[in-house]
Amino acid sequence: MALALETLALLSIILLLNVAALVLYFVDKRAARMKRSRIPERTLLLMALVAPFGALAGMRLFRHKTRKTKFLLVYLFLALHLLLVLYVMLPMLGGQFEELLSSLISLPFMM
Q1: Is-contact 27 39, C-beta < 8 A?
Q2: What is the four-CA torsion angle of 68, 73, 74, 75, rounded to 10 degrees?
Q3: Which of 27-36, 50-59, 76-85, 101-110 has the lowest mean pLDDT?
Q4: Cβ proximity of 55 and 44 under 8 Å
Q5: Distance from the Cα of residue 37 to its chain's centroid
Q6: Residue 61 and residue 24: Cα distance in Å, rounded?
Q7: What is the 8-class DSSP label of residue 90?
Q8: Which class for 44: exposed (0-12), middle (13-18), buried (19 or more C-beta within 10 A)?
Q9: pLDDT tens for residues 1-48?
Q10: E strand or H helix at 59
Q11: Nearest one of 32, 68, 24, 26 to 48, comparing CA atoms
């Protein structure tokens, strides 16, 4: 199944935003270590809202902002993005999703 040009463009934008978020977390961590001017937390959180995969990767890879309570929002943003993807994908999957779900529910370890 070939991806439509619009879908490919959207996926490219999402990928670029997530890479940008990852880079921002790296730059801020480096600035913190070098005692230089930092990226505002508001900017980091805004990027996390737009690109939670890159933000979470940056937090984990660079061990940055992992102890700050407000950065737990990144996990919420990630969950919201996953729910949005699921919501968009469900109509495309049609009956296949129900089959997959029923097969998962009937697995022995789920009982």
Answers
A1: yes
A2: 110
A3: 101-110
A4: yes
A5: 26
A6: 12
A7: H
A8: buried
A9: 566 777 788 889 989 999 999 999 999 999 999 999 999 999 999 999
A10: helix 52-61
A11: 24
Residue type, 90: L
Strands, DSSP E only, in 15-110? Answer: none
Contact indicator for 88, 55 with CB cutoff of 8 Å: no
Instruction: Render the burial of 54-93: b for 16+ CB within 10 Å, e for the rest.
Output: bbbbbbeebebbeeeeebeebeebbeebeeeeeeeeeeee
